[in-house]
Write a structure and sequence with these properties.
By secondary structure, the chain is mainly beta. Helices cover about 10% and strands about 45% of the residues. It folds into 3 domains: about 80 residues, no CATH class; about 160 residues, 3-Layer(aba) Sandwich (Protein Transport Mog1p, Chain A); about 120 residues. A hairpin with a 3-residue loop joins strand 9 and strand 10.
Length: about 400
């Protein structure tokens, strides 16, 4: 520790040694330590060429830390510096790197970045031809310059040099876990097989009620051989989104923040532009798309308690099933079954209608009769793997603006 400190032009005064159980019995790794230190408000910087050392800085205090693990023990040393070190490395990143092409690529934490491409005008992405799914429209060109295409495993959204993959749900990518192992597992499944030479990989998260998960790194696309900067993201119900840029600066210019600086206490509003990319999973409708039966189900249960006594007052149930059956030539039948009331006094209601549908434009559908009147709905298709979801919102009574979703019934 003294020799490393001297290289930084300083010396040590107070030192402290902590005893920690080995990783095999306790699971405490360097990632665990770094997370705890950052949560305590310390800024962490790597020591170039010394992966077991790092500098900590807080309130003009500087501490050098040494952390090592073996099969029998974990060593953790702290030494307080007499003055600020003359130079420190880049922010320390996680050492557990996801797989690339079924192999583990060792992280290069040297403080240097791969060659940037900002000196020359970046080339625009070539939009991948959309897959054929049996629907009329599988490409959307939006007024703000983004273009969406339906793909087998994601919706591909592009503008200029930026490409975003809205991944469809897949087993093994969402499960209860801490941010790092969850992000690494999803990266290995959804991202890693299409890249090689992963560098400077790290994970991050923001500690908020709707916690965002981030993974990022520099890699080479197997399909094109291009070097790219990748940001991997999920928050709430967004699913996993993969942002691909020719370099980090291009990403920062588009989304207005540096993902490599995200910490547990960063402003969660920085994530809004990423989460909003899910709106581009949106494709126009056509009269020829309306076939077969589509259904939407809802179930809500309320356990009731007396406000004064706290005694149980019963259970209230609200359940509904709505279905459209679309026939050749534009005819349809519609049915709504509703079940509601307190257990022991539940009421059942069913209403039916039939008529003809028309499509006045690419984003609306008109039904000649739903319940007791003609209705026009705002409408669009969204994609999941191997299927579409029909989204409808009553144009006359949009309410909260939340669309009702219908799935194809077998």
């Amino acid at each position: 520790m003294e020799s490393v400190s001297k290289k930084a032009g300083t010396s040590l005064k107070n030192t402290e040694v902590l005893y920690i159980l080995p990783v095999a019995s306790h699971g405490y790794t360097q990632d665990s330590l770094i997370l705890a230190v950052e949560q305590a408000g310390w800024k962490i910087s790597a020591v170039e060429g010394e992966k077991q050392y790092f500098w900590m800085e807080k309130d003009s205090r500087y501490v050098i830390a040494y952390f090592s693990t073996d099969s029998k023990e974990t060593n953790l040393y702290f030494g307080e510096s007499t003055q600020a070190p003359s130079a420190v490395g880049t922010t320390q990143t996680n050492q557990n790197v996801p797989q690339q092409n079924n192999t583990v690529t060792e992280q290069q934490n040297t403080g240097t970045q791969p060659e940037q491409q900002t000196q020359n005008q970046p080339q625009e992405n070539i939009i991948t031809p959309a897959v054929s799914s049996g629907f009329k429209y599988n490409t959307s060109n939006f007024d703000d310059g983004w273009t969406s295409t339906e793909q087998a495993d994601w919706v591909e959204v592009t503008k200029g040099s930026i490409k975003v993959l809205l991944h469809y749900p897949k087993d093994g990518t969402i499960f209860p876990a801490d941010p790092e192992p969850l992000t690494n597992a999803a990266w290995n499944i959804l991202v890693a097989p299409r890249y090689s030479d992963l560098r400077n990989y790290k994970t991050a998260y923001i500690n908020t009620y709707n916690r965002p998960y981030l993974g990022m790194g520099y890699a080479t696309e197997n399909a094109t051989g291009k070097k790219v900067f990748i940001v991997f993201f999920r928050q709430g119900q967004t699913g996993w989104l993969e942002f691909i840029a020719p370099d980090k600066n291009s990403f920062v210019q588009q989304y207005k923040f540096d993902p490599e600086l995200i910490r547990w206490d960063s402003d969660s509003d920085l994530m809004n532009p990423l989460a909003n990319m899910t709106v581009y999973n949106k494709f126009a409708i056509a009269i020829s798309d309306f076939k077969r039966k589509w259904t939407s189900d809802f179930t809500g249960i309320q356990q009731m308690y007396h406000v004064y006594t706290g005694q149980y007052a019963g259970m209230n149930i609200n359940q509904s099933n709505e279905e459209f059956i679309f026939n050749a030539g534009g005819s349809y039948s519609w049915k709504l079954l509703a079940v509601n009331g307190m257990v022991g006094n539940i009421k059942y209601n069913e209403v039916k209608s039939s008529g003809r549908l028309t499509v006045p434009n690419n984003w609306q559908v008109h039904f000649s009769m739903i319940e007791n009147r003609a209705r026009t709905y705002h409408a669009f298709w969204s994609c999941i793997k191997g299927a579409r979801i029909l989204n409808l919102l009553d144009a006359d009574y949009p309410g909260s603006g939340i669309y009702t979703k219908y799935g194809l019934s077998k």
